[in-house]
Amino acid sequence: MNGALIIDKPAGLTSHDVVNRVRRILEQRSVGHLGTLDPLATGVLPVVFGSLTRLAQFYTASPKTYEGTIRLGFATDTYDAEGEATSAVQPVSASLEGLEQLAQTFLGVIEQTPPPFSAKKVHGVPAYKIARKKKEVKLEPVQVEISEFQITSFEDERATFRARVASGTYMRSVAHDLGKALGCGGHLESLRRTSVAEFAISDAHTLEQLEAGWLAGKGDELCVHPRKLLPEMPSVTATDEVAAHIRSGRAVNLPEFSRAKQVKVFYGQADLIAIATRVAGTLFHPKIVLAGEPAVRAAG
């Protein structure tokens, strides 16, 4: 059984915790997620299972959107509300207008230093393992891209925001750097991811909803229709002959897609059987063959 789900991750669970819960609910071992969320964060966590776990490689650079709150006045060692304060509380001299203007300086391709409590590696060791031992963590700045960062309100030392960022951007670092720029310190108090690639919070289900729906035999209503996956790729519905060639790993001729680099190959309306890459002219070779059972029949 293959499929994709959008989970509304609750606070307090790691992304791996969610995957384990989904494994138990679906009674399936092959389950993975498409983009880690910190335990503090909530919101969109796309989960794939069965052979569709092989699609993860196409989501490594997916853009993400967030909503959240930055608490100004002091920084923490984790750059979020779960950490320990690294200074006494400082007075905050800021206005909504000033914060809006400051937020604009974070737009575009910028240099950002990842949080010390992160999975970034220092000489092969995850930074958080070093930080937990109260040792200094030296991480080099990396280039990230922020296409939207808007402060939407400011009250009681808390700035709410909306952001759209490229993969690899830490909103914890954005909050930390904003507080540093103000001279009073700051950290990420709450974070909710509202989208990843084509997956939106409006289509997400809680773990409780997933379990209840799955036990009731409503898996088709919970899963994302395979045709909605990777919308930037055109889709082709294979004939029996083309499907047989694709399943055996052989190249096929798709004259109607002479300008496409990659196409999604379906057998019927819902069975995604391969991702094929153009090798020359109209000749496509299956880059990934998604063998196994048909996908869960999703409505819509």
Q: If you had to describe this structure to a student in words, what would you say it looks like?
A:
With 300 residues, the protein is of the alpha+beta class. It has three domains: 3-62 and 198-224, Pseudouridine synthase; 70-186, Pseudouridine synthase; 228-289, PUA domain (Archaeosine Trna-guanine Transglycosylase, Chain: A, domain 4), CATH 2.30.130. It is built from seven helices and 16 strands. The strands form three sheets. Strands 1, 2, 3, 4, 5, 8, 9, 10 and 11 form a nine-stranded mixed beta sheet that branches. A five-stranded mixed beta sheet has the order 12-14-15-16-13, covered by helices on one side. Strands 6-7 form a two-stranded antiparallel sheet. Helix 1 packs parallel to helix 5 (207-215). It is elongated, with a radius of gyration of 22 Å. The chain starts with a strand and ends in an 11-residue tail after the last strand. The mean pLDDT is 92.
Topology overview:
Blueprint lengths: L2 E7 L5 H12 L4 E3 L8 E8 L14 E9 L23 H9 L3 E5 L8 E2 L2 E2 H6 L9 E14 L2 E8 L5 H12 L3 E11 L2 E2 L6 H9 L3 H4 L12 E3 L2 H8 L4 E2 L8 E6 L3 E10 L2 E7 L11
Parallel strand pairs: 3-10, 12-14
Antiparallel strand pairs: 1-3, 2-3, 4-9, 4-10, 5-8, 6-7, 8-9, 10-11, 13-16, 14-15, 15-16
- The gross shape turns out to be elongated
Mean pLDDT: 92
| Number of separate strands | 16
Biggest sheet architecture: 9 strands, mixed
* Total helical elements: 7
The name of the CATH superfamily of the largest domain reads: Pseudouridine synthase
Unreliable runs, pLDDT <50, ≥5 residues? none
**Helix and strand string, N-terminal first?**
EHEEEHEEEHEEHEEHHEHEEEE
CATH architecture identity of the largest domain: 2-Layer Sandwich
User: How many separate domains?
Assistant: 3
Proportion in β-strands: 25-35%
- The CATH C-level name of the largest domain is Alpha Beta
Protein structure class: alpha+beta
- Overall helicity: 10-25%
Rounded to the nearest angstrom, the distance between the terminal CA atoms is 19 Å
CATH topology of the largest domain: Pseudouridine synthase
